[in-house]
């Protein structure tokens, strides 16, 4: 594919000034309207639309306990093992702190670190707070941070968050009580952004407790009770060094099906729930209690492909291309998603959240082209594939999959559906290639603008959930991750995008719709990446 010279995208947050830009977006109550979300052009719309009605006489009050709904079962709360924003990740981020944080506009802002600078391409220094304490009252020190990174850099350590670090980070050393030095093996232009999910645990506690089910962090809340199937309760960390949250108690409830989420809202049992079917939002649109959100999320929704199963027809790029041509994304979007999004532009990055390759466009709906490619690949008489769904996880997933089944049948492809609870579904992806389904959904995007690891990680051959065979894509994204300049990074990113498009390493669907229902009694800046951190939810002003 011929590509014109692409513009160089730079993130001013990543300039090596040593004085990171701090973004503190104001949190305001939204009026009872459907808010259209899309950051930059759209986040500005959200923030302006969220004002105006705060403090009006009809503002309903919320209780002493903040009630937040999760759409996935909890898989454990080990802060060194990552976690979905729709379950474990939201709880972990309310209990623990990391060196940096990600603002709703995808900029990188200070966390435990107050400033950072790159002294040379392989050396960074971070200034950290000295007033942070764990919820047992013990101080969080530079030595504690070093210990956490030492564990994660040990290849025998079970914390999965360490695997990406080990590709470019050699060591973290203490310069003094407020200064840490990161020694790299490869350049990392976006290092501050990469550290936002490296949560700091108390070393003594970590070595004597099961972090999957127990917690001791320095964040605004501490864990009171955990039930992985049903939810978790939190209360204030009285030793927290930051701003005191608005709610002393928080209850996260797992509502793994659409029916459960809708029923809980109708019964007035929840204050904030994300991931609702756009068709179900209408019943809350004119509510005296709730506001609704319908817009564009930060993460692309794709059908990931198992290219490594023995004898699979999906090893042939012509078959993968055919499935892209056989999928009528626009009809699905208009009929099921209220037209909230547009088809992915032939890539898993898109504006306004991430810089995209302007030379790549969406696969058009072309069933005749699909039939031609299938015939060329030796499947003129058709083929049968399986798709694995996780119960209640992705917005309109079930209905959209049924639509895809019908569309693919028109070109001779039979698609069979299997469905599992989220933990079992996730484990099946972690398993061997021949035991995994042919196709499964992946909704995973970058956490900050220009996040190469987050944007492309799940589509590499070496990702824990991947069943791809993509050596060229792997090489190009590695070069992008290790680029020494923004221009070099952009060149490799665009080449990787073009490779993934031409090889059809995914069925490119559409950006994840960002949907939700929020109590009018709350102040909350919508976070389209779907992390529901309790400390970021406030109370609406009362008259």
From TrEMBL:
Chain positions covered by the region annotation Disordered: 1-27
Keyword Membrane applies: yes
Segments crossing the lipid bilayer: 32-54
Cellular component GO terms, alphabetical: ATP-binding cassette (ABC) transporter complex; cell envelope; periplasmic space
Domain of life: Bacteria
Main location: other
Limits of the Solute-binding protein family domain: 108-451
Subcellular location: Cell envelope
Gene Ontology BP terms: peptide transport
Molecular function per GO: peptide transmembrane transporter activity
Keywords assigned by UniProt, alphabetized: Membrane, Signal, Transmembrane, Transmembrane helix, Transport
Bias-annotated ranges (Polar residues): 10-19
Similarity comment: Belongs to the bacterial solute-binding protein 5 family.
Name of the featured protein: ABC-type transporter, periplasmic subunit
Lineage: Bacteria, Bacillati, Actinomycetota, Actinomycetes, Pseudonocardiales
